[in-house]
User: What shape does this take?
Amino acid sequence: MELAEGKLELRERQRLEGHMDRVWSLAWNPVTGVGGVPAMLASCSGDKTVRIWQQGPSGSFDCTAVLEDTHTRTVRSCAWSPSGKLLATASFDATTAIWEQIGSDFECVAMLEGHENEVKSVSWNASGSLIATCGRDKSVWIWEMQSDNEFECVSVLQGHTQDVKMVQWHPFIDVLVSVSYDNSIKVWAEDGGDDWHCAQSLGEASSGHSSTVWALSFNEHGDRMVTCSDDLTLKIWDTSENPSQASGDGYGPWRHVCTLSGYHDRTIFSVNWSSEGLIASGAGDDAIRLFAENKDNPLREVDGPSYSMVLKKKAAHVMDVNSVQWNPKDPRVLASASDDGLVKIWELTGLSQ
Amino acid sequence: PKIARMVTGLINANPVVYERKERRLRSSPAVVDEDIKDPEHPYSLEELKVVTEDSIEVDDNQSYVRVTFTPTVEHCSMATVIGLCLRVKLMRSLPSRYKVDIRVAPGTHATEAAVNKQLNDKERVAAALENPRLLEMVDECLAATYV
Assistant: This one.
C-alpha cells in the first residue's frame, strides 16, 4: 500500500440518524458487502436499542430493524458471529443477548446471564464456537455454544483488579485479550485441558499504558495488535508468537513495538486496524485519526517499526467519537459512532494501489 | 459501587460554613452553579467552599470547562457524589460541544487519583446515572439550582 501524500481524504458519505442517545459501538456483519449480499452494520446505544443498517441498491444505508424491549439498560457493545447469522449484544443490565436473523426480523434466541452488573464488551472467536464477555465485576467469562443456541459458561477468568472494558479474540487462534480500567492488557489461553489461564499481563512495567485501556484491535495477519488508552497514546504490540506455548517462566511472547504519543488531546475510546494496514482511532476530542507504518524508514531495521499519523479528521462528530470500524470487505469504508447520537459512514480516497 | 453508597452517618459533622459571595456578572455562557447542595448538609457547595469562582476554568473558544473542587475533609467519601453532581449539572446546562473535566484540588483528598479517574470515566458516569437511587440523590443536590 502506498500513501499518496497529502491526497488522503476521509469523505462523509452518510449520517445515520435514529438513535435517541449516545451510540457506543458498531459492528459490520462479516459475510455481507460481498457477492451481491448488501453490507450490514449494527449499532448499539444508551437508548437501550440496537439498530441494523443495510445498504440499498443506491449505496445508502437504511435502518431495517430495531432490536428493542430486551435490554433494560444501555447496550454497550455488539458483535456478529463469524457466520454473520448471530448477533451478540452486551448491556449494562448485566446480560448478553444472542439474536438470530429470521427473514428480515431479529429474534432474541438466548440470554447469557451471570455477570454481577454491567457487561461492557462481547466477542466471538474465529470459529464461532466461543463467546467472551467482560464487565464491571472485573471478570472475563468464556461461553461455549452448544447445539440449538444453548450457551454454557466454561470459564470465569479473574485477574483484573478493576472493571474490564473490552474483550477481543485473536483473528485465527483461540487466544483472548482483555483490557481494563486497571491499565493492564491480559492475554488468556487454553492450557491443554479445558482450563483457561492468563498467559501474559502487559502492564506499565512492560511498556504498557499508564491509564485505562479502552480498546484493542489486531491487524489482518494477527501478528500485531494496537491498544488505545486514557493516557492519550496508542501502543503497537508484536503478537506473532502463540502465547499458548508460553512456558510460564516469566518469558513474555508478546512484546511492545512502539508507542504513538503526542497525537491525541483527550481519551482515545476506539481503535481499529484495516485490512490495508491503516489504523483508525476515535477520541474524546471529536476527531478521527489515521495512522500507517513508515515502511520506507531507513532506521527500521535498527529501531524497529514506527508509525505516524497520515490523516486527522477534525470535528468528525460534534461530540466524542466512541467507535471506529473499518468495513472488513471494503477497507476504504469506515463507520464511526458518537455521543452525538449519530453513526457516520466515511469513504477514504487518495490511496493509490 | 462506592459512588452509589448511601449516607449512613455524617462524614463531616461540623463543616465550616462560609458566607455567600456577591455574584459578579459572568461574561461566559458557562455557569457552574454554586447553589448545588452538599449531599449531607443543608448548605450549598459555595457556602462550604467546595467550589469557588476561582476553581472554575472556562475556555469558551475551545469549548472547555475544568472544575477543581475541594472536599470539606480529606477522607470525604462524598467526593465522588459531589463531583458527579457538578458533572451532571454542567451536562444539563452547557451546550453539548463543551468538554468538561472535573477534578479534586491537588492535595485535598486521600484518594485523589482514584476519585479523578472515576469522575472522568464517562462509561462509569453513564452507568452510575442509570442507578435510580444515585440519580435521585444527585437530583436532590441539584434541585435548588433549577429555581
Residues 1-8, 24-31 of chain B have pLDDT under 50 and may be disordered.
